[in-house]
Specification:
alpha/beta; D-Maltodextrin-Binding Protein, domain 2; two-stranded parallel ribbon; 39% helix
Length: 275
């Protein structure tokens, strides 16, 4: 009787292990841009609700960190608010990684100030002069006689690099600028500081900050899609080669009408018409 019990117990254990293997969840890791982060977080939540056996983990850190992670093979999907650089692509190839680009949404980089700031529009040149440290008082651009506090993303940020491309054009950001590590931190800082100016992706706008027009054009979904707004850009994810398994299914979901509704829901610009 004892032998039979042990045999039954052994069979049950093996069956349990086989069941665990059969129903083991596939995991997908996302790392990178804090601009793209809200899109992926919301989409992952919806995807996992529909696919409870799939495990997904999402973390920020900046576009540069995401691309580094795909090169180092420590992430399945890298989030980036800028295109991969030539040197990054070459480094990836040297490590046997084929960084494949996927556009998942459109965005507009919006200059933001405190709601009490009466300035409503700045030109690209004025923005550049502020961030170079050449314009230091709001009265120089039609505002009150207050010192300007420039807040910027850190250099690992894709938004920082897009700002450099569109606004700074390789001019150096003043060392007096405050460098912050995430878009959320930037928005919070401006909302608490009447003197501040910063820039974020359109999805980070909220009632605690005031969006500025640039060159007389307001940043909206429509002006971002038409590229009328001068600081419009694409948002990306990168995979090592063409995605497979759950990563491929997730990206197909994100690019579908349902997934693009999520893009619009979190405040970014969908790639397809949702009408």
């Amino acid at each position: 009787m004892l032998k039979m019990f042990k045999r039954v117990l052994c069979v049950a254990t093996v069956f349990a292990l086989m069941s665990t293997v059969s129903f083991a969840s596939e995991s997908v890791v996302f790392k990178g841009s804090t601009t793209v982060l809200p899109i992926i977080q919301e989409a992952v939540e919806a995807y996992m609700k529909a696919n409870p056996n799939v495990q997904m983990s999402v973390s920020g850190g900046g576009s540069g960190e995401g691309i580094k992670a795909i090169i180092d093979k420590t992430t399945d999907i890298a989030m980036s608010s800028r295109a991969i650089k030539k040197e990054e692509s070459e480094l990836a190839k040297s490590k046997g990684v084929n960084a494949v680009e996927h556009v998942v949404a459109f965005d507009a980089i919006i200059p933001i100030v405190h709601p009490r700031n009466k300035v409503a529009n700045l030109t690209i040149d004025q923005l550049s002069q502020i961030y170079q440290g050449n314009i230091t008082n709001w009265k120089e651009v039609g505002g009150d006689d207050l010192k300007i506090v420039a807040i910027s993303r850190d250099s690992s940020s894709g938004t920082f690099e897009s700002w450099d491309h569109f606004v700074m054009k390789k001019s150096k950001v003043t060392p007096r600028a405050q460098m912050l590590a995430s878009s959320g931190a930037v928005t919070t800082a401006v909302g608490k500081n009447r003197y501040a100016i910063a820039y974020v992706g359109i999805g980070y706008l909220n009632k605690n900050v005031k969006a500025l027009s640039v060159n007389g054009v307001k940043g909206t979904a429509e002006t971002a899609l038409s590229k009328e707004y001068p600081l419009a850009r694409e948002l990306y994810v990168y995979t090592n080669g063409e995605p497979t398994g759950e990563a491929a299914k997730f990206l197909a979901f994100l690019k579908s009408k349902e997934g693009q509704k999520i893009v619009g829901k979190v405040g970014y610009v969908p790639m397809i018409s949702l009408k």
